[in-house]
Every structure is written in C-alpha cells, then in structure tokens.
Amino acid sequence: MADIPRITSDRLILRPHDAGDLDACLAMWSDERVVRFIGGKPADLAETWARMLRYRGLWQLLGYGYWLVAERQTGAFVGEVGFADFKRGLGADDLYLPEAGWAISPDQAGRGYATEAAETAHRWFDTTHGGGSFCMISDGNAASVRVAEKLGYGFSHTLSYKGEPTGIFLRRGAPAT
C-alpha cells in the first residue's frame, strides 16, 4: 500500500481522507456553489463516499491522489486538492498527464486557500513525480483560472466535455528530484 503523505503550508495541512471526513465532504460536494463548475449536480451521500474511496484508490494505484485540506491552526475543513487520472476518455485530446484539481468549501473561499493548497500539492508533485500536468476548467470559472495561472498553467485549448465547453490548461513540471 502506498503511503499518503501529510504535508503542510503556512496555514494548511494536506492529509489523507478518513471515514470521519464524510460529513464535511458531503457538505461541500452537495453545495450548488461548489458543483456549479464541477459537474453541475450536487452529490448525495453515496456519491461523496464513492469519491472518498476513489481518492484513496488513486494513491494505491498511481502513487498520487487527492488530499483533504484543513486549517493548520483549527483543523477546520477547507476543501480538497490533488492529482488524478480519471480516465475521462478525452479521445485525441487525451493528454496522458496527471490531472490537477482543487475544490474549496464556500465558507472558506476568498482566503487564498485554493492557491496555497494547490501550490503545496504541486511542490510535492514536482519533487516526487516531476513532469507536467493539466487541469480542466469549465467556461466561466474565473476563480479557478486565476488559481491555475498562479500555478503556472497556460491555456491550451477548449474541448467539449459532457456537452459543456471546457478549457484545458497545461503546466510543465520540474524534473523529479
């Protein structure tokens, strides 16, 4: 089994999900403000649980995955960040790179947590895996575009994903050390 690292930044802890996180994750993934640009449909309990299990499985199969993000000082739930291969079937546009993603609970938004968590995750990824990554951002999600640009992602192209226009952003990673 792959160990899931626990990493920290000035204000945040990135740690593995555990069963006790289900309620906080459900609150975030069932909030229409969160899913507006991520699938468009609030998740129910079973879908949120399956997401948490999928996150653990990514680590086991790929050596990277998603972390739960919490405030260092209080332990309060902030959101999730990480890397995946979701086998999206993008066809000729499939990038064969790890896909980065982040989601922040609406009550934690506007504090710079998305950027801080994603920068922390990318530093870890660059050190351990190197190479590049991509992210998919739905049209109109200006907040995620700003985070992606701060991380060094550049717009590549737009494709249709599940019938919706979606931007593909690419980032060159540092070689693994």
Automatic annotation (TrEMBL):
GO molecular-function annotation terms? acyltransferase activity, transferring groups other than amino-acyl groups
Looking up Gene3D superfamilies in the UniProt record yields: 3.40.630.30
Q: Which residues form the N-acetyltransferase domain?
A: 12-175
Q: Which UniProt keywords apply?
A: Transferase
Query: Per its UniProt record, what InterPro entries does this chain match?
Result: Acyl_CoA_acyltransferase, GNAT_dom, N-acetyltransferase
Q: Which residues form a coiled coil?
A: none
Q: Which Pfam families match?
A: Acetyltransf_3
UniProt-recorded name of the protein? RimJ/RimL family protein N-acetyltransferase
